């Protein structure tokens, strides 16, 4: 399914700035450098694009676009990574024009969704308390995502570097291992939902809804007023789940890479 990046409603730029800031704290890069208002995020041990990308944070910052892209690309090369540019509503249109003119390819569109937690309806589902066992959570997350165990140290380090309070939520079966996992990061009055994963055998049974609701309820009890999350635009199952909880689209973002780069 292809979703038109320009089809979403005009975003609220102050809200975008705040959600971008809390998302950076909720999923922190190992190295953050600035070139003007451009943020260069790099993490040698973990491949996530959100911690390995260039993000422009001011629509008026349009000087020396090609030169700055070249300088950023060299920083990525020093990390053994191919540079990607993350386009949000804060990115100057002139930068996007240059990327398009120079043959860059746009990919992986995502929605940022938000929810007023005071409007979240009550649901009669089982409650789940968070664990603080990062190793156990990482093991479960990798298993549910069918990802290589070799990435465990990098993911554990990334989660350990999160500064705001967080809850790690798991549903497990004694004989069959992890069923679902989710992480909730509470940054003052905002709660971010990340890393939701449900085992293939348990999808479509309400398990993801149960664990997500438990995480949001935990954040609300702790004083969070609003929640946010990021989800790929073509993930229909996840979108249906989040909309059922009351989440609505706040804005969209996508990535750009040079043509021919994987």
From TrEMBL:
Keyword tags: Acyltransferase, Ribonucleoprotein, Ribosomal protein, Transferase
Pfam family, one: Acetyltransf_1
PROSITE patterns in UniProt: GNAT
Top-rank taxon: Bacteria
Keyword Ribonucleoprotein recorded: yes
InterPro entries: Acyl_CoA_acyltransferase (IPR016181), Bact_Acetyltransf (IPR050832), GNAT_dom (IPR000182)
Protein name stated in the entry: GNAT family N-acetyltransferase
Native source species: Allorhizobium taibaishanense
């Amino acid at each position: 399914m292809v979703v038109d990046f320009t089809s979403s409603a005009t975003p609220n730029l102050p809200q975008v700035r705040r959600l971008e800031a809390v998302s950076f704290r909720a999923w922190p890069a190992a190295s953050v450098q600035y070139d003007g208002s451009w943020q260069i995020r790099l993490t040698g041990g973990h491949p996530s694009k959100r911690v390995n990308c260039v993000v422009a944070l001011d629509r008026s910052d349009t000087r020396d676009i090609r030169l700055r892209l070249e300088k950023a690309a060299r920083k990525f090369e020093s990390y053994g990574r191919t540079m990607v540019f993350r386009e949000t509503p804060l990115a100057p249109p002139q930068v996007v024009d240059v990327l398009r003119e120079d043959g860059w390819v746009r990919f992986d569109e995502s929605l940022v969704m938000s929810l007023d937690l005071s409007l979240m309806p009550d649901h009669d589902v089982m409650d789940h308390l968070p664990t603080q066992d990062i190793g156990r959570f990482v093991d479960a997350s990798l298993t549910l995502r069918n990802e290589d165990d070799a990435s465990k140290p990098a993911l554990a380090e990334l989660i350990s570097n999160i500064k705001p309070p967080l809850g790690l939520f798991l549903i497990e079966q004694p004989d069959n291992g992890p069923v679902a996992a989710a992480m909730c990061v509470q940054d003052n009055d905002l709660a971010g939902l990340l890393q939701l994963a449900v085992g293939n055998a348990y999808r479509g049974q309400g398990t993801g809804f149960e664990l997500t609701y438990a995480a949001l309820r935990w954040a609300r009890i702790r004083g969070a007023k609003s929640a946010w999350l990021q989800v790929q635009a073509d993930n229909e199952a996840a979108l249906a789940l989040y909309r059922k909880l009351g989440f609505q689209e706040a804005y969209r973002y996508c990535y750009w890479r040079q043509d021919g780069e994987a």
